[in-house]
Amino acid sequence: MNAPAAHALRWAACLCVLSIVAVASRAARAQSAPEAAAVYQDRLIGGGTLRPDISAGDYLSTNDSSGLARSVRVDAVASVLSQQGPNAAPTIHENGFVADAQWETAGFGAFSADAAARVGGGADRFVVAGDDRTSFSLHQRDMPFDGGWQADNALGDLNAPLINLARVQQRFMLNSGTLLGAETEWRGPSGVQIVAGGGEPGVFEGIRVPTFQTLGGSTATLGAEWSPAPHLTLGGEYAGARDANIYYQPPTATLLPPEVSNQRISSDTGLLSGAWQDGLTRAQLNIIDGTLDGNSNALGVWADGAYTAGHYTQTFGAFRIDPNLAWGNQLIASDLQGGYYRVGYQSRRWIADFGVDEVRSVSGHGANSTFLNGDARYQLWRDTGIGGVANVLLSSDGSHHAAWSIQGYVDNVNSFGTGRAQLDYADDSQLQDAIATLQQNWALPVGARLATSAGVEHIHSEALPGLPQADSTIVRLAAYGGGDLTSRLSLDGHVQWAQAIQGRAAPSTSADVNLTYQIARSWGLILSFYENRVGSWTPLVVSSPLTPPVPVAVPTQGQSGFFLTLRYQQARGSHFVPLGGAPGAGSGRLTGVVYLDANENGRFDASETGAQNVTVILDGRFSTRTDAHGRFDFAAVAAGHHVLTVQTDNLPLPWTLVNQGRTEVDVGTRDRVDVNIGAMRLK
Amino acid sequence: MRRLLLTTTLLLSAFIASHAHAQGFAALVSPPRFEIGGKPGATVRQVVEITNRSGSPSRYRVHTADFLLDANYGVTFHDELMPDSCRRWVAIERPVAELPAGGTIRYRFEVQVPSDAPAGECRFALMVEADEPSLASAGTMRLPIVGRIAVIVYVTVGDAAPQIEVFGPEVVTYNGQRVPAVRVHNAGNAHTRMGGFLTGKDASGRKFDFTPSDLPILPGEVRAVLLTPSTADDQNPTLDFPVTVQGTLEWANQSTPLDERFK
Question: Which of A185, A234, A290, A612 shows the smallest number of beta carbons within 10 Å?
Fold first, then answer.
């Protein structure tokens, strides 16, 4: 049977479960009721006295279908939060407005805007130099020009641009970092791409009302690439930083000494890259050269290859990167040389891959490491799969160290939904960490969803000089879900809780639970409970030495409290020209979550968290930023095939998305499609 | 013949669906199917969401119907009670739902399983249709049409379960391609869908994965389950017969090994 036949068969199956049929009405009635007297009259619940549970209709149901597609959402946010921490104000407020909008123009491409502003009294969560109280970005995409040229432009809080060759990296990431500034990207015939951008580096902060805190200094980039021949692409890019801060520590935090948290760098770095690709076979050579803080010139060279044949995909490469290299104000893996090889196998029953990284220090001051990684998943039966992961890291920097971890799991589709039982064990010679976890994505009636996770973790740490030996046992519980309580009232939330039942360890809790009431079409009221308390431990993770260096992430003090949000959202023109659609096209809704897929099972589990303030792009034209849950929402999307990509620069390291999280999705007319995009740890 | 019927059905559906939308029948119904369990003497309550996606208020007629699947998986709906119909167990919220533009009703229905109901499966369709026909233009003709959405409900009563008998190999022609198939009989009292992991080789020695078709097999039915071949590089290969297939056929919580040669 060929693909169309299979497709036809599926259609036929669909007709069994959901068929839209229309026939000449009289004939239809006659056919389905050959004898009027035989027509069965249904019984009614309570004699038909049930009060109907009807919503008022949502903002998508606008009668204004004139003009090009446009949509807007505005949130007015008020909050009261209590805060813990050595220098923290006991009560703080995060009040303000958040807005985002997308609109199509006839001759200037598609625009997307995000803005937020803090207002009102009370202290901000953090007070940093500059005390920025706003965030703003305006993106223009696919502005057409004669000769096949298109341009993207952006202004505000954004990520510095990268040429495509710099984005498509198998092992070495060049993160561009966020900045307050401007960028432009031009695409033309023969694969020409020109990018430029610059501004003042900074970071997003905030829970519901994101503001952008600039950190001083400046960065700039300029690059271009083109395809001089079929399958071949060449390019280069410059990135520079002046007096830029690479660490971010709120003044109320004290984990970093001032000489570290105030450390500023200047760098000049150039990248030359060339790639050859034919189908799924690809080879790329990269040369990076630059200086950091006036040190002598440093050089980096790495070559990557990928080859796919049948069920097998192989990736391999070799590298030598001198110490003291940076990309703008972003740290990159440096002072290392070696090679790597990975082979993956995928069939209907098997998903497996194996990899080895061999890394040596160029300067001799760093560690030499060998990292082995293997994971496999086998589908035992239609409803049951088993799998395991093993990591081994052998390193020496004068003395030898070994760290390893193993994981085993069983996935099962049961009558309650989809479950997983998982065991993890990690050992780095000073710390042993064992975790047993049960996860379940529950099958619930329409309008409801629930995923739960329960785990027990036991940590054993060896006695260290000045520190006693210590054991802790921690219980972890998590739930993620929600549903429609009535047609106007819905509950949605994410709760995680961890508590030591033995030993000494600070508890960890996080919660973000939203109760939404639809006041009227376009208007909603959201009451949220928020809590975030970071515990005093993190699970031990054994990862590759090629994992990008993580800037010191300073945990915020714990906060808990309530948000009240009044939301207005409206979409117009969408019935006739939905986003990405043609006149007359139907539209649906495309929502989802960008999340950190810790167990790499491809599902958003209760124990996992969403990625905040990450830009999600629809069809390369329209963008929106994820909220505190990692959720995004394109309200009116043309029915048909769409491509979602994620700008990975705002993902916390070492998390990354393969192929920029490219996800292809079909949206049906009047359909609502949920897409979960999981980021994985770089291995 | 099967191909012709399917093609005709698809064309009709596509034609009708688009016109149903154009003429104002714009409803979203979720979920598309219920597969639930019920005990004798118990009442099973469920909710189906009906959303009016048109720009004006709409009235929807909601009622139950029996349905039949023909040999080619064409579906027919019957307002009259069919033999062994369980629709007398069913109660719905209201016969007509009036929705504002964009409005959603959480429409309730329940199945009251009699205390003396034997183990088995209660099947019916919940029909959502425009209360008034719309006019569709086809050239100079104007046809009154009624848009309908059917939600299929399966209620497994007691310990009802499918029981599959595999009769052996055969080769069927589907869309001009010869494909292996196994004929199966559901001797149980609940429907099921086939699955499993099968591999094999054709006469030229090429290796394939085979995917059983997962269409419903109702109690008492005999159906040909197509085994669709694929490879890592080709989702639409042509087989050179004879073909050997090995692996496991699965349904519900049961399975059986399969090792057959298809000529």
Answer: A234
